[in-house]
Structures are given as structure tokens and as C-alpha cells.
Amino acid sequence: MQWTLVIPLKPLARAKSRLADTAGEGVRPGLALAFAQDTVAAALACPGVTGVAVVTDDGPAGRRLAALGARIVPDEPRAGLNAALAHGAATVRASRPESPVAALNADLPALRPLELARVLDAAAEFPRAFLADAAGVGTTLLSAAGGRELRPAFGIASRNRHRGSGAVELRLGAVDSVRQDVDTGDDLRAALALGVGAWTAAAVARLPSGGGRAGGGQ
Q1: Helix, strand, coil: what percent of the chain each, to 5?
Q2: Which H/E stretch holds residue 194?
């Protein structure tokens, strides 16, 4: 099965405010971009992924991600995360109505292509499926088979909302890199322990703390 991934990215100036305890306001946009670059690069390297559509109105970020091979979809609804994801999925399916699509977080800097492939292979068995985040509260991936609506319900406690919507929860081991999104300093340290991609490693190395452990994620 060939998947198209839809990745949302808010304007970098407003991104990752919960990292304030780890990164100052001036460096958080660069960190958010680095997370997205590593996520997109790993997604495009994943077997079974035929394309990545990034929904964003951030021009500089869009140009950087387009250079990696992503399709940039303007966030025309401008009505929040779930509206952006639904719009991205609809845009993908305007030309490929039966394409299976999956929403993927933009903040998975340790993402490994083969772990993502395992998740997508498992998701292919169900009309809709999702993967909970490392904290067990949110969601990092939501899939919809060809002809099925994505029906995203991301945000606080999205694990319960996606389960309640009828999506099947994927319970897989050894896919930590697909679960480890980054919202807080502790999340970032957990991602670093897994091994982040080159863009995040470089961005973290510029932090005043010196960056801790980084590198080797992909």
C-alpha cells in the first residue's frame, strides 16, 4: 500500500511555546523547523510512503520542506490543527480519491523510516487507525484507508477522542521513534536519547546548554 502523509505545521513564530523552559523565544522557531525537517526527511525515506503534504502558511518553512521533496499545501481554512489536516487530506484526494492517507505530527525528530513503515503496515489492516504518543495521552499518527474520511481529533487527550471515533488503536512495540513527539523539555531529552536527525542535532547543539546527547536517529 502506498501512503500519502499529511503533516501540519503552524507558523514557526508561534510554535513550541511549551519548550520555554529549555529554549528561549528566539531559538524555538529554529527548533520547530528542525523537528519538521527531520520528520519530513524520515517520512519520505519510509518504504510505502509515496508523498508528504505539509499544511502550512509559514513561507520560509514551506520552502525548506519543499526542498526536501514535500508538497506544500496552504492552510486555507486557518481554523486550527484539525481543520488543517482535513483540508490537507482533501487536497491529496482531489487528485487521488482512493489514496490511503495518514496524519503525522511534525515534531518527531527521532523518527526512523522503518519504524514508521511498521506502523503504516499495521494501519493498513483497518479502515481508520491511530498510534498513541509516548505519554499515552495524545496521538502522533492517524490513518484512513482509501475512501475513508480521516476525521482528525488531535489536541489534548486525543487518544481517547480517536478511540471514541471508532479508530483502532495500534498497539505495537519497538516503534518508539514514531511515538516520541516533542512538546516539553523532557520530551526533547527523550528524543535525544533515541537519537535525533541531523537538523535537530544541529539546532540543539546551538542551545546554551550545549545540547546533550544528539544524533544518529535516521
Answers
A1: 40, 15, 45
A2: helix 185-194
Question: Model pTM?
Answer: 0.94
Give the integer Cα–Cα distance in Å for 209 and 6. Answer: 33
Q: How distant, in Å, are the alpha carbons of 120, 155, 213 from that of 202?
A: 29, 29, 11
The CA dihedral of 8, 12, 156, 94, to the nearest 10 degrees, is: -20
| Cα–Cα distance measured from residue 51 to residue 95, given in angstroms and rounded to the nearest whole number | 13
Q: Which CATH architecture has domain 3-205?
A: Alpha-Beta Complex (3.90)
For residue 108 the three cell numbers come to 518527531
Reported as half-sphere exposure (CB side, CA atoms, 13 A), residue 74 has a value of: 2
Q: What are the backbone dihedrals phi and psi of residue 55, each rounded to the nearest 5 degrees, phi first?
A: -95, 110
pLDDT tens for residues 157-197?
A: 999 999 999 999 999 999 999 999 999 999 999 999 999 99
pLDDT, tens digit, 9 for 90 and up, residues 45-59: 999 999 999 999 999
Residue 76's contacts (CB-CB under 8 Å, 6 or more residues apart) are 87
Tell me how far CA of residue 104 lies from CA of 25, 70, 176, in angstroms: 25, 13, 14
d(CA 193, CA 183): 15
Q: Are 57 and 75 in contact (CB under 8 A)?
A: yes
